[in-house]
TrEMBL record:
Protein name as it appears in the record: Glutamate synthase
PANTHER family per UniProt: GLUTAMATE SYNTHASE [NADPH] SMALL CHAIN, GLUTAMATE SYNTHASE [NADPH] SMALL CHAIN-RELATED
Span of domain NADH-ubiquinone oxidoreductase 51kDa subunit iron-sulphur binding: 37-82
Matches recorded under InterPro entries: DPD_II (IPR028261), FAD/NAD-bd_sf (IPR036188), FAD/NAD-binding_dom (IPR023753), Helical_ferredxn (IPR009051), Nuop51_4Fe4S-bd (IPR019575), Nuop51_4Fe4S-bd_sf (IPR037207)
SUPFAM superfamilies per the UniProt record, alphabetical: alpha-helical ferredoxin, Nqo1C-terminal domain-like, Nucleotide-binding domain
Lineage, highest ranks first: Bacteria, Bacillati, Bacillota, Clostridia, Lachnospirales
Domain of life where this protein originates: Bacteria
Pfam families: Fer4_20, NADH_4Fe-4S, Pyr_redox_2
Length: 610
């Protein structure tokens, strides 16, 4: 018999590994609306099963915590039980020999602090505060609550125009979002339990490409009310669209020569072709929305003048200015903000970067847009300087991968220190301080200087993409509450001390995504309508196909393909290709129709109006 042999996993171990994968997918697809107390007990049982059993805190303590949570769920606990749970969890955290015991107890402790009212509701009233009408996960996670299963079913049937009509009930930018939406809806798609999330954004893009020109629905009879919208970005235009459908006459005030805000002047053409953006804007304007271009609030017209002329005023100015680095040499020639750089590109004023070395500071989507635009403008070398790791970048993974594929150098753990200029005051390069990973704060690894000497990165153009600010000076002078650079509107979008004035989108929440701006526009449009004395409803009479009863066998996700990197870096044409009809039908057929099966049946049907 041989002395040694190569170990191979047993059949039992292979099955367990498969179960772990299934569990991982189920956790990933965990829908909103679940009882947090019940979830805590389930995770605690899993952690207890993983312990080695050698130390008392894990072996006995976690079991006792599980029994105490079970008492809470069964209505046998008192308020003193919560104090006992807190003491027990802290004791386990202090005495457990390994991370399994510590983290399991810490999870319970954080729950006792974070959702204590759910524990108390179980104890006092014998029920949970979370909703029993569990929502469809993708719809609940879409900020605008678009009827996602509905339009996917319509795409499957080839009814692309109806799909666009259904999307517009909640989102008047279906084409735009088909290109650039960050698709939070896919994060908890129940299809993750089977294989992978449905490509929801790809199906929206497909519907927009194949639907042709879809006219907007007719407007309600005129109410005689007039509303001014300050800012023609996605939030302002969305609110204008819905208010116009409700019968109010809306006028949009836009300081730039074109509508769209950051969609037009912040997102490059290769990601969002402007002729496709114009399709959405044309549909919005077809409702009768009026536009006045080239007027800057605070300079050409004041908020007080608008209040005198209109029955309601909506502020949706977005976040259109840049943040500063605050380092030596920042005002040198050749240093520019990403906001202004991308705005010039959006206007067709393309700076000549031929043969230049370009550096971009930042790790968000704006940074990726800037570096990939610089490549297309002829830069010899383009580098990203980021003080954290690639894993910490806030840009979409696909954007980071796309930048790397196009030849962008990504230099991480490098914090800007000072800028060096030549005798003419033009930037010659930037010194960066090497960083090292440090403690995790708020779920994100922080960094600190590594102690190594600063490095010099030569560049003739430096683009700063570390965030955006909001122009609030005029509004603050007009009495609009402003705090930490944001307009502080109430949850309903208005102000308690300024009747008739509302605010929404990035200027009220800080820089966010397009779909969040659209969601805010829905809220504020409904509340402006109510303020004006009406209660109009937005509906869509498109009939949703009944789900077919075919088995949903495991099937790979259809991804959108892209043009070759060596080809696309020479122009600003769109880089992403649409699905074909067979691909779209297969992908749409992967949808589990949660609006009919599973969670949806508890809700009693879809929301047809808002």
């Amino acid at each position: 018999m041989s002395r040694l042999e190569l170990p191979t996993p047993s059949k039992a171990q292979l099955v367990v590994e498969g179960l772990y994968k299934d569990l991982e997918r189920r956790i990933e697809a965990s829908p909103p609306g679940l009882c947090p107390v019940d979830i805590s007990r389930a995770f605690l049982e899993l952690c207890h099963a993983q312990t080695c059993g050698k130390c008392v805190p894990c072996r006995i303590g976690l079991l006792q915590l599980k029994h105490l949570i079970t008492d809470v769920l069964n209505g046998k606990a008192t308020m003193e039980t919560l104090d006992l749970m807190e003491r027990t969890a802290l004791s386990i955290m202090e005495t457990a020999d390994c991370a399994i015991g510590y983290e399991a107890a810490n999870m319970v402790y954080k729950g006792l602090i974070g959702y204590r009212e759910d524990y108390e509701e179980h104890i006092k009233n014998g029920r949970c505060t979370c909703t029993y009408n569990q929502p469809v996960p993708c719809v609940a996670l879409c900020p605008a609550h678009v009827d996602i299963p509905g339009y996917i079913a319509l795409v499957r049937e080839g009814r692309y125009a109806d799909a666009i009509r259904l999307i517009r009930k909640d989102n008047p930018f279906p084409t735009t979002c088909g290109f650039i939406c960050e698709h939070p809806c896919e994060a908890r798609c129940r299809r993750n339990m089977v294989d992978d999330a449905v490509n929801i954004r790809g199906l929206k893009r497909m519907a927009a490409d194949y639907a042709g020109k879809v006219p907007p629905p007719p407007c309600a009879p005129s109410t005689g009310k007039k509303v001014a919208v300050v800012g023609g970005g996605p939030g302002g235009l969305s609110a204008a669209y819905y208010l116009q459908l409700m019968g109010h006459q809306v006028t949009v005030y836009e300081m730039l020569p074109g509508l769209g805000g950051m969609l037009r002047y912040g997102i490059p053409n290769y990601r969002l072709p402007k002729e496709r953006l114009d399709q959405d804007i044309e549909a919005i304007l077809a409702t009768g929305v009026e536009v006045k271009y080239g007027l800057r609030i605070g300079k050409d017209i004041t908020i007080q003048e608008l209040r005198a002329q209109y029955d309601a005023v909506l502020i949706t100015i977005g976040a259109s200015t840049d943040k500063k680095l605050g380092i030596e040499g920042e005002d040198a020639d050749g240093v520019m903000s990403a906001v202004h750089f991308l705005r010039d590109v959006g206007k067709g004023i393309n700076p000549d970067l031929t043969g230049q070395e370009v550096a971009i500071i930042g790790g968000g989507n704006v940074s990726m847009d800037a570096v990939r635009s610089a490549i297309r403008l002829g830069a010899k070398k383009v580098s990203i300087l980021y003080r954290r790791r690639v894993a910490d970048m806030t840009a979409l993974p696909a954007e980071i991968e796309g930048a790397a594929a196009e030849g962008v150098e990504i230099r991480t753990l490098r914090a800007p220190s000072r800028i060096e200029t030549d005798e003419n005051g033009h930037i010659k390069g930037i010194y960066v301080t090497p960083q090292m990973i440090s403690s995790i704060k708020g779920g994100r690894a922080s960094v600190k200087p590594s102690g190594l000497p600063d490095e010099f990165v030569p560049c003739t153009t430096l683009i700063v993409a570390i965030g955006q600010n909001i122009e609030t000076e005029h509004f603050e002078k007009a009495g609009v509450p402003v705090e930490r650079g944001k307009i502080m509107a109430e949850k309903f979008g208005g102000f308690n001390n300024i009747p008739g004035v509302f605010a929404g989108g990035d200027c009220a929440t800080g820089p966010a995504t397009v779909i969040r701006a659209i969601a805010a526009a829905k809220v504020v449009a409904a509340n402006i309508d109510e303020y004006l004395g009406f209660h109009h409803e937005i509906a869509c009479d498109v009939e949703i196909p009944e789900p077919n009863l075919d088995d949903r066998m495991p099937c790979g996700r259809v991804e959108l393909t892209e043009r070759e990197a060596c080809e696309r870096i020479h122009d600003f044409d769109g880089i992403e290709n649409c699905m074909t009809c067979p691909e779209a039908k297969q992908e749409a057929n992967r949808c589990l129709r949660c609006d009919h099966f599973g969670f949806g049946i508890f809700k009693g049907g879809r929301e047809k109006v808002w």
